[in-house]
Amino acid sequence: MIVFTVVGTPKPQGSKRAYINRKTGMPILTESAGQPLRDWRTDIQQAALNAHQGPPLEGPVMVTLDFTLARPKSHPKTRETWPTTRPDIDKLARSVLDAITHICIVDDSQIIQLTATKSWGTPGVTITLGETT
After folding, report:
1. Are 91 and 120 in contact (CB under 8 A)?
2. Is the peptide bond before 123 cis (omega within 30 degrees of 0)?
3. What are the chain's domains?
4. What Rg, from alpha-carbon coordinates, does the chain have?
C-alpha cells in the first residue's frame, strides 16, 4: 500500500482544444490549465517519488483520492456544508492520475476501483494506492 499527502490547492485537469494553424496547416493541441496545473503535477510527482521507491505497480490497482479545499469565508460556520462548486472532482482526479502514471503505476488503465472525495480543510490531496489480489 502506498499512501502520501500533497499540500497545496488542487488543480483540475484542463480541457484540451485542438485547432489548425492557418500559416502552417499543422494541428495544434493546447491545454487550458497552463502553469498552475504543471506546478501541481510536479508537486504530486515529487511526493510520489518520495513515497514509492521502486518500479511502478503493474497489476490491478485500487486508488482513493481525498481532496481538501479551502473553505470560502462566505460559507456558514455553524452547519456542515460541502464543496459542490468547481473544481469538478473528475478533473481533479484526472490531474492526479496523470501525475502518478509511470511513477506509482504503469498506466491509469490498471485502476479497477477509484474513490474520490472533496471536503473542506487544509488544501491538498491524500492519495492511497493498493494492489488487488
Report:
1. no
2. no
3. 2-131 (3.30.1330.70)
4. 17
**For residue 19, what are the CA distances in angstroms to 24, 33, 129?**
12, 17, 37
- Per residue of the chain (133 residues), give pLDDT as tens: 999 999 999 999 877 788 899 999 998 887 766 888 899 999 999 999 999 999 999 999 999 999 999 998 888 888 888 999 899 999 999 999 999 999 999 999 999 999 999 999 999 999 999 998 7
Cell of 4: 502520501
The Cβ of residue 90 has, within 10 Å, a number of other Cβ atoms equal to 11
Instruction: Report whether 12 contacts 83 (CB < 8 A).
Output: no
